[in-house]
Structures are given as C-alpha cells and as structure tokens.
Amino acid sequence: MRLLVDLSTFTSDHNGGKDEVAYNLLKGFSQLQLTQSIVCVSRDELVEKVKAIDKSYYVVPISRITCRTRFSPLISAIPDVVYAKKLNKVIKDEHIDAVLYTNKFVPPVKLNVPTIVIPHDIQPLTIYKSDRSIYPMCAAIMTKNTLSVCDHIIAISDFDKNDMISKASKYIAKYHTIYDPICFKDFCCKDQSKKYITSINIQWPHKNIDTIIRAYAQVARYTELNLMLVGKLPKNIDKFEAIVKENNLEDRVIFTGFVTDVQLSSIIQKTRIYINASHFEGFGMTSVEMMGSGIPTIVANNTAQKEVTMGLCRYYEPTDNESKLAEQILEELKNPKTERELIEISEIVKKQYSYENIANKYWKFIEECI
C-alpha cells in the first residue's frame, strides 16, 4: 500500500492539536517502519520538519494558496481545485492507493483514490447557527464540502462521532472512531518543587479561562501554588487581566504568552495540578498528556473529556461553575492522589494512546478502505 499524507494546510506556526496529531502519526508510522510506503505533501517551509521526524520520508513540496481573510474558505475554493489537480498528478506518479487529509478544509474535488479525512470536529456547522456572519457561513460550507467529497471520516472520539452523526447523519456510513496519537514526552520530575496550577492553550475562547481564574481566586489563600496560564495570549486578554486585578492576584497569576518546548517542559515539571476547563473538546490532548506525565488532572465533565480520560482524573460540573472547580482543586490539595495511583494512570493512558499503537490502527483502517 502507498499512502499520501496531506499536510498542506499547516504552516511553521503551531496551530494546536491537529498539528500534533499529524506529526505524531508520522512518528508512529516511522516506528512501524512504514516510511517507504508514505509520501507527504506539504509547503516548502515544512519539508525539514517532516524530515526531522524521519529522514527517509519522501516529501513533495506543493504550494497551496490560502487567504487570511473572513472570506478565506470560499476564496480558497478556486485555487484548491488547482491544488487537487496537483495531488492527482502525485497520486499517479507515485502510485498512491489512498490519501489521508489531516485537516477538515480539503479541496472541493474527489480525488482518483479513496480519501480519508480527520476533521477533528465539525463545529462550524454549529457555530453558523448562532453566528450568521460571513466567516462562519464560509467555514460551514467548506465543512459540508469535506463531509461530502471524502470517502471516510475519522472521529477522534465516540463523542465526536456521535456529534457528527447528530449534525450530518446522511454521512453516518463514513464515520469511524480512532483516538488521537500522543507523543508522551519525558518530563522527568527531578525538580520536586511543585509551584504551579497550570492550564495550556489559553488563546481559544472555548478554553474557559475566566472560570479557572475565578476558581483559583477561591483557593489561593489555601495554597502557595501560583496559577500558570500557558500559550498565546487571547485577543480579549484585558478581560482576564481585569479578573486577576479585581481579586488582587497580580502576583499569583502568570500569563506566559507563547513558550518554547524547553520552557513548556520546565513549567510541566513544576506543575502540581493541571486543569482543562474547556467548554468543548473532541478529544482533549493536553489532559491526557499531563496524565501520562503523572500530573493530577482536573477536567470539566463535558463533551469527550470523561471518555478520553477514561474516568481516571478529577471532574467537575457544570463547566462555568468556578465554585465546583475550586472544590476539586481543594480536594486534590487536601487528599492528593498517591504516587502509585499516578503511575498506574500514566501507564494506562500511555498504552491506550501511544502514537505507535494509534498509527497501527490507522494503517489497518486505511488498508480496509482500499
């Protein structure tokens, strides 16, 4: 079997979990010694990044025009037709048997071989119902196109699959669940001084950072741990800074902005409790990563979060209730999980979500598709 992995929507700027899924899959395929059966398509700027995963990967650099405006999904449709022709040429020249799209925005054209897509979620179909502005409308149109033109659609959790069925039941035969692959980094905690309650990827509105800050305000006097909020600053950072100020937490709450992998590793080593208070997660990679690192984790009990974390961490609900979140933080501080419990949890999630294990499931599924 020859597989084409499409990375054309990615840039050198990190864009969240979908980047990690694609690169972790390539790591998994490498571990399975499948690199000679894979052709990657990406922008010029990403060729070396793919080669850094495994130098034996064959990467075809193809430019894909994208427009960074509110009309971009529709404006991109015309150059995407041209891009599809380029893909079909690679398919012919490299004797490709199937194409794996690693993002939801795919060309509005059926290719000459079976296509599999990882949309990660189809939230544009929901957002458009409450926001009738141009960009949500365009994104919804492009999402519908993806579901229509692709032959097989990967849901990243059973919740994600059921969500897709509820929004687009006509494609039910295309949906198949395969969990996200995770690269569990070695955050060896030689530094035993735990300093932080941490949350990562704060730039997105659905991450519910205001609830985390308000919950921390309720527990701050009971702990010396500071609140570490990691990631690119959201556009409405003034809102969060105001909450910090009104609770006199200027010296206790840290907004890091963008951090490097080395800086993130240092923060995680010093993290006592990790929180994911997100309103929506089709999977929720950071929670599983922290559990794999032996860090006590608290998540909002909604969407896919309890399914993916397998009931192995602490949960609170409703999502916007800072008092319920504060209760779980205090419970962990007063009655912490034992080292043995954390090790057992780590082993379970590593076995379930290792990139080699998940890549193997992808490969078998794609063989079945062909």
Question: How would you portray this structure in words?
Answer:
There is one protein chain. With 370 residues, the protein is of the alpha/beta class. It is 44% helix and 14% strand. The chain contains 15 helices and 13 strands. Strands 3-2-1-4-5-6-7 form a 7-stranded parallel β-sheet, sandwiched between helices. It has a 6-stranded parallel β-sheet with strand order 10-9-8-11-12-13, sandwiched between helices. Strand 6 (152-155), helix 7 and strand 7 form a beta-alpha-beta unit. Helix 1 (17-31) packs across helix 15, helix 8 (209-219) runs parallel beside helix 9 and helix 8 (209-219) crosses helix 13. The longest helix is centred in the first third of the chain and has 17 residues, at 77-93. The mean pLDDT is 91.
Which helices and strands occur, and which strands form pairs?
Layout: E1 3-6, H1 17-31, E2 38-42, H2 47-53, E3 58-61, H3 72-75, H4 77-93, E4 98-101, E5 115-117, H5 124-130, H6 134-149, E6 152-155, H7 158-167, E7 175-177, E8 196-200, H8 209-219, E9 226-230, H9 237-246, E10 253-255, H10 261-269, E11 271-276, H11 285-292, E12 297-300, H12 305-309, E13 314-316, H13 322-334, H14 339-353, H15 355-369
Parallel strand pairs: 1-2, 1-4, 2-3, 4-5, 5-6, 6-7, 8-9, 8-11, 9-10, 11-12, 12-13
